[in-house]
Design brief:
mainly alpha, 0% strand, single chain, 3 helices
Amino acid sequence: MISIDLGLGTGQFSGLELQHLMPPNRVEEKYLEELIHGIHYSATILASFRQLLPPPASRSERILKWYEGRHVDPRVRKFDQIERNARDNARRDLARFHGSNFKGEK
């Protein structure tokens, strides 16, 4: 859950300043792959709690994605695959947690 789900407020602070310090390993390929997986896995889990989980991709959507994937940079293709795997992993874990009939949609 996030703060808004808990009824907490938000705010804007014009005087707030941040200094973002990023260690060198945060731009390494392996770290980026894990980050992409984690973001899409957790987003799928969070969407299920809000009952906003989209249905799995149809056959035609998967074919279109495959075709598009043949015409993009290999790194983009790899990151797309990581994203799909993360969403599939989250759906599988949700089904295991909620039972095999879990859909997650409204």
